Protein backbone atom coordinates (compact mmCIF):
# COMPACT_ATOMS: atom_id res chain seq x y z
CA UNK A 1 0.00 0.00 0.00
CA UNK A 2 2.77 2.46 0.96
CA UNK A 3 6.43 2.39 0.02
CA UNK A 4 9.28 4.60 1.20
CA UNK A 5 12.24 4.93 -1.18
CA UNK A 6 15.39 6.58 0.19
CA UNK A 7 13.21 8.88 2.27
CA UNK A 8 14.97 11.62 4.22
CA UNK A 9 13.50 14.67 5.91
CA UNK A 10 15.85 17.37 7.20
CA UNK A 11 14.98 20.56 9.00
CA UNK A 12 18.02 22.70 8.15
CA UNK A 13 21.01 20.66 9.38
CA UNK A 14 18.86 18.41 11.56
CA UNK A 15 18.11 14.97 10.05
CA UNK A 16 14.64 14.44 11.51
CA UNK A 17 13.72 11.19 9.75
CA UNK A 18 15.44 8.69 7.43
CA UNK A 19 13.76 5.61 5.96
CA UNK A 20 15.89 3.85 3.35
CA UNK A 21 13.40 1.20 2.22
CA UNK A 22 10.13 0.20 3.85
CA UNK A 23 6.90 -1.26 2.51
CA UNK A 24 3.68 -1.28 4.48
CA UNK A 25 0.77 -3.44 3.34
CA UNK A 26 -2.91 -2.52 3.38
CA UNK A 27 -4.35 -2.23 6.89
CA UNK A 28 -4.65 -0.08 9.98
CA UNK A 29 -1.52 1.04 11.83
CA UNK A 30 -0.89 2.67 15.16
CA UNK A 31 2.11 5.02 14.79
CA UNK A 32 4.08 5.20 18.02
CA UNK A 33 7.06 7.22 19.20
CA UNK A 34 8.04 9.55 22.03
CA UNK A 35 7.54 13.33 21.85
CA UNK A 36 9.65 14.81 19.09
CA UNK A 37 10.44 11.43 17.49
CA UNK A 38 8.95 12.47 14.14
CA UNK A 39 5.35 11.25 13.98
CA UNK A 40 3.88 14.51 12.68
CA UNK A 41 6.85 14.91 10.33
CA UNK A 42 6.15 11.45 8.90
CA UNK A 43 2.41 11.99 8.52
CA UNK A 44 2.81 15.43 6.93
CA UNK A 45 5.43 14.05 4.52
CA UNK A 46 3.22 11.12 3.52
CA UNK A 47 0.32 13.56 3.12
CA UNK A 48 2.41 15.56 0.64
CA UNK A 49 2.53 18.64 2.86
CA UNK A 50 6.29 18.71 3.51
CA UNK A 51 9.17 18.58 1.06
CA UNK A 52 11.72 15.76 1.55
CA UNK A 53 14.37 13.78 -0.30
CA UNK A 54 13.49 10.42 -1.89
CA UNK A 55 9.96 9.33 -2.64
CA UNK A 56 6.77 7.87 -1.20
CA UNK A 57 4.65 5.63 -3.43
CA UNK A 58 1.04 4.61 -2.98
CA UNK A 59 -0.17 1.27 -4.36
CA UNK A 60 3.11 0.54 -6.12
CA UNK A 61 3.45 3.43 -8.53
CA UNK A 62 1.56 6.57 -7.49
CA UNK A 63 4.28 8.98 -6.41
CA UNK A 64 3.58 11.83 -3.99
CA UNK A 65 6.01 13.89 -6.05
CA UNK A 66 5.52 12.83 -9.68
CA UNK A 67 1.79 12.20 -9.54
CA UNK A 68 0.87 14.73 -6.86
CA UNK A 69 -2.70 15.54 -7.92
CA UNK A 70 -3.81 11.93 -8.17
CA UNK A 71 -1.88 10.99 -5.00
CA UNK A 72 -3.42 13.75 -2.92
CA UNK A 73 -6.91 12.73 -3.95
CA UNK A 74 -6.14 9.25 -2.62
CA UNK A 75 -4.41 10.20 0.64
CA UNK A 76 -6.13 12.39 3.21
CA UNK A 77 -4.82 13.82 6.46
CA UNK A 78 -6.31 15.23 9.66
CA UNK A 79 -3.88 17.33 11.70
CA UNK A 80 -3.39 16.97 15.43
CA UNK A 81 -4.40 20.57 16.07
CA UNK A 82 -6.30 21.68 12.98
CA UNK A 83 -6.53 25.34 12.03
CA UNK A 84 -9.15 26.48 9.54
CA UNK A 85 -10.13 29.96 8.32
CA UNK A 86 -12.32 31.34 11.10
CA UNK A 87 -14.70 33.21 8.81
CA UNK A 88 -15.76 30.09 6.87
CA UNK A 89 -18.49 27.79 8.15
CA UNK A 90 -17.88 24.10 8.67
CA UNK A 91 -20.17 23.35 5.74
CA UNK A 92 -18.19 25.64 3.46
CA UNK A 93 -15.01 23.76 4.37
CA UNK A 94 -16.81 20.47 3.77
CA UNK A 95 -17.97 21.66 0.33
CA UNK A 96 -14.43 22.72 -0.59
CA UNK A 97 -12.91 19.40 0.45
CA UNK A 98 -15.74 17.38 -1.14
CA UNK A 99 -15.14 19.10 -4.47
CA UNK A 100 -11.35 18.68 -4.31
CA UNK A 101 -11.69 14.97 -3.52
CA UNK A 102 -14.45 14.28 -6.03
CA UNK A 103 -16.81 13.11 -3.25
CA UNK A 104 -20.30 12.02 -4.23
CA UNK A 105 -23.06 14.55 -3.47
CA UNK A 106 -24.42 14.26 0.06
CA UNK A 107 -21.68 11.91 1.33
CA UNK A 108 -21.08 14.23 4.29
CA UNK A 109 -24.62 14.10 5.66
CA UNK A 110 -24.31 10.76 7.46
CA UNK A 111 -21.02 11.84 8.99
CA UNK A 112 -22.46 15.18 10.16
CA UNK A 113 -25.39 13.43 11.78
CA UNK A 114 -23.51 10.58 13.40
CA UNK A 115 -20.94 12.97 14.90
CA UNK A 116 -23.77 15.27 16.13
CA UNK A 117 -22.46 18.24 14.15
CA UNK A 118 -25.75 19.38 12.62
CA UNK A 119 -26.34 22.11 15.22
CA UNK A 120 -23.07 23.90 14.50
CA UNK A 121 -21.89 22.99 11.00
CA UNK A 122 -23.44 26.15 9.48
CA UNK A 123 -21.77 28.46 11.99
CA UNK A 124 -18.40 30.19 11.36
CA UNK A 125 -15.47 28.02 12.47
CA UNK A 126 -14.19 30.87 14.66
CA UNK A 127 -17.06 30.09 17.07
CA UNK A 128 -16.12 26.38 17.46
CA UNK A 129 -14.66 24.77 20.58
CA UNK A 130 -11.50 22.69 20.07
CA UNK A 131 -13.54 19.44 20.09
CA UNK A 132 -15.99 20.81 17.50
CA UNK A 133 -13.02 21.83 15.33
CA UNK A 134 -11.42 18.41 15.73
CA UNK A 135 -14.60 16.62 14.67
CA UNK A 136 -14.76 18.80 11.55
CA UNK A 137 -11.17 17.91 10.66
CA UNK A 138 -11.87 14.19 11.11
CA UNK A 139 -14.94 14.41 8.89
CA UNK A 140 -12.94 16.20 6.18
CA UNK A 141 -10.42 13.35 6.14
CA UNK A 142 -13.19 10.86 5.38
CA UNK A 143 -14.62 12.75 2.39
CA UNK A 144 -14.27 11.15 -1.03
CA UNK A 145 -12.78 7.69 -1.34
CA UNK A 146 -9.17 8.00 -0.12
CA UNK A 147 -7.11 4.77 -0.18
CA UNK A 148 -5.16 5.95 2.86
CA UNK A 149 -6.35 8.15 5.75
CA UNK A 150 -3.71 9.67 8.05
CA UNK A 151 -4.92 10.81 11.46
CA UNK A 152 -2.51 12.71 13.73
CA UNK A 153 -3.57 12.30 17.36
CA UNK A 154 -7.24 11.64 16.52
CA UNK A 155 -8.05 10.52 20.06
CA UNK A 156 -7.27 13.84 21.75
CA UNK A 157 -9.88 16.55 22.35
CA UNK A 158 -12.99 14.60 21.32
CA UNK A 159 -15.39 13.15 23.92
CA UNK A 160 -15.85 9.41 24.53
CA UNK A 161 -19.06 9.21 22.53
CA UNK A 162 -17.42 10.83 19.50
CA UNK A 163 -14.43 8.55 19.86
CA UNK A 164 -16.69 5.51 19.50
CA UNK A 165 -18.22 7.07 16.37
CA UNK A 166 -14.75 7.63 14.95
CA UNK A 167 -13.83 3.96 15.58
CA UNK A 168 -17.06 2.99 13.80
CA UNK A 169 -16.18 5.15 10.77
CA UNK A 170 -12.72 3.55 10.65
CA UNK A 171 -14.04 -0.01 10.86
CA UNK A 172 -16.71 0.63 8.22
CA UNK A 173 -14.24 2.13 5.75
CA UNK A 174 -11.80 -0.70 6.29
CA UNK A 175 -14.42 -3.41 5.86
CA UNK A 176 -16.38 -1.85 3.01
CA UNK A 177 -13.61 -0.27 0.95
CA UNK A 178 -10.32 -1.68 2.19
CA UNK A 179 -9.17 1.81 3.21
CA UNK A 180 -5.86 1.88 5.06
CA UNK A 181 -5.21 4.06 8.11
CA UNK A 182 -2.18 5.36 9.98
CA UNK A 183 -3.08 6.84 13.39
CA UNK A 184 -0.55 8.48 15.66
CA UNK A 185 -1.45 8.35 19.31
CA UNK A 186 0.18 8.59 22.73
CA UNK A 187 -2.86 6.75 24.10
CA UNK A 188 -3.25 3.03 23.50
CA UNK A 189 -5.77 2.16 20.82
CA UNK A 190 -8.78 0.19 21.99
CA UNK A 191 -7.79 -3.35 20.97
CA UNK A 192 -11.31 -4.65 21.42
CA UNK A 193 -12.60 -2.22 18.83
CA UNK A 194 -9.56 -2.25 16.53
CA UNK A 195 -8.23 -5.81 16.99
CA UNK A 196 -6.20 -5.92 13.78
CA UNK A 197 -4.19 -2.73 14.22
CA UNK A 198 -0.54 -3.15 13.27
CA UNK A 199 2.15 -1.06 14.91
CA UNK A 200 4.73 1.29 13.45
CA UNK A 201 7.46 2.74 15.64
CA UNK A 202 9.67 5.78 15.15
CA UNK A 203 12.89 5.45 17.08
CA UNK A 204 16.35 6.91 16.47
CA UNK A 205 15.03 8.97 13.55
CA UNK A 206 13.77 5.99 11.58
CA UNK A 207 10.54 4.06 11.10
CA UNK A 208 10.11 0.34 11.68
CA UNK A 209 7.14 -1.96 11.28
CA UNK A 210 7.02 -3.79 14.61
CA UNK A 211 3.78 -5.75 14.36
N1 LIG B 1 9.52 23.18 11.36
C1 LIG B 1 10.50 22.59 12.06
N2 LIG B 1 11.74 23.12 12.10
C2 LIG B 1 12.74 22.53 12.77
N3 LIG B 1 12.62 21.38 13.45
C3 LIG B 1 11.40 20.80 13.45
C4 LIG B 1 10.28 21.38 12.76
N4 LIG B 1 9.20 20.57 12.94
C5 LIG B 1 9.64 19.56 13.71
N5 LIG B 1 10.95 19.68 14.01
C6 LIG B 1 11.75 18.75 14.80
O1 LIG B 1 11.62 17.46 14.23
C7 LIG B 1 11.51 16.47 15.25
C8 LIG B 1 10.23 15.69 15.08
O2 LIG B 1 9.12 16.55 15.34
P1 LIG B 1 7.63 16.03 15.20
O3 LIG B 1 6.73 17.19 15.44
O4 LIG B 1 7.50 15.32 13.91
O5 LIG B 1 7.54 14.98 16.40
P2 LIG B 1 6.29 14.18 17.00
O6 LIG B 1 6.72 12.76 17.14
O7 LIG B 1 5.08 14.45 16.19
O8 LIG B 1 6.17 14.85 18.45
P3 LIG B 1 4.96 14.95 19.51
O9 LIG B 1 4.67 13.56 20.00
O10 LIG B 1 5.54 15.81 20.57
O11 LIG B 1 3.80 15.61 18.80
C9 LIG B 1 11.64 17.21 16.58
O12 LIG B 1 12.99 17.14 17.01
C10 LIG B 1 11.27 18.65 16.24
O13 LIG B 1 11.95 19.56 17.06
From TrEMBL:
One of its GO terms (molecular function) is ATP hydrolysis activity. The lineage of its organism: Bacteria, Pseudomonadati, Bacteroidota, Sphingobacteriia, Sphingobacteriales. Keywords: ATP-binding, Nucleotide-binding, Transport. Residues 2-210 form the ABC transporter domain. Pfam families: ABC_tran (PF00005). This is ATP-binding cassette domain-containing protein.
